[in-house]
Amino acid sequence: MKYRHYAPKTKCILVENGPEQISKINNLISENSNCCVLGFIEDRKAVNIPKDKFICLGSKNNLQEISSNIFSSLRKIDTLNCSLAIIEGLEKKNFGLSIMNRLVRACENNIIYKAVEMLYNSIGQEPSELKLELKNQSKSCLIKPKERFLTLP
């Protein structure tokens, strides 16, 4: 992957911004005993993880602070010796879009999308595997039901 030099060696999953973001993060924490969370000060108390496993990027209301902390925070993930890092996403607006671009790259496109959750809800059950063809591209992606994230090539 291009621009891999700042990405942690630890497997990372980005949880897209939305109303159920914290519950999705807490579900991932309950399913993975050795994980850490890279998140925001506003959500620290809502995330069910020990204080020493929470890496704070700053405040959602201060994107400049987040951009100043992003690379050192990503490097700190590997110092915690976790098997999984769960990263809290931002709204993709203005400067938040460039921050999300860096987080997506650090996660190697392992993202929990709102659209994937909506797809599961509309089907009413978890299929063993779904493969989606991306329109206007010669790419496909695989949805892994048990892991609840989408991997793009």
What keywords describe this structure?
153 residues; alpha/beta; Rossmann fold; 24% strand; disordered C terminus
What does this 3D model show about the protein?
The structure is a single chain. The chain is an alpha/beta fold and 153 residues long. The protein has one domain (4-112): Threonylcarbamoyl-AMP synthase, C-terminal domain (Rossmann fold, 3-Layer(aba) Sandwich), CATH 3.40.50.11030. The protein is 33% helix and 24% strand. It has four helices and eight strands. The chain has helices at 21-31, 63-79, 95-106, 114-123, and strands at residues 11-15, 35-40, 54-58, 84-88, 110-112, 130-133, 140-144, 149-151. The protein has an eight-stranded mixed sheet with strand order 3-2-4-1-5-8-7-6, with helices on both faces. Strand 7 (140-144) and strand 8 (149-151) form a beta hairpin. Helix 2 (63-79) packs parallel to helix 3.
Could you outline the blueprint of secondary structure elements for this entry?
Blueprint lengths: L10 E5 L5 H11 L3 E6 L13 E5 L4 H17 L4 E5 L6 H12 L3 E3 L1 H10 L6 E4 L6 E5 L4 E3 L2
Parallel strand pairs: 1-4, 1-5, 2-3, 2-4
Antiparallel strand pairs: 5-8, 6-7, 7-8
Assign the CATH class. Answer: Alpha Beta
Number of helices: 4
Q: What is the name of the CATH superfamily?
A: Threonylcarbamoyl-AMP synthase, C-terminal domain
The largest beta-sheet arranges its strands as 3-2-4-1-5-8-7-6
Examine the secondary-structure arrangement and name the CATH architecture. 3-Layer(aba) Sandwich
Total number of strands: 8
Judged by helices, strands and strand pairing, the structural class is alpha/beta
The geometry reads as: globular
Q: What low-confidence regions span 5 or more consecutive residues with pLDDT below 50?
A: 133-140, 148-153
Roughly what is the average pLDDT, rounded to an integer?
Answer: 79
Largest sheet: 8 strands, mixed
Q: Total domains, how many?
A: 1
List the helices and strands in order: EHEEHEHEHEEE
CA radius of gyration is: 15 Å
- What is the CATH T-level topology? Rossmann fold
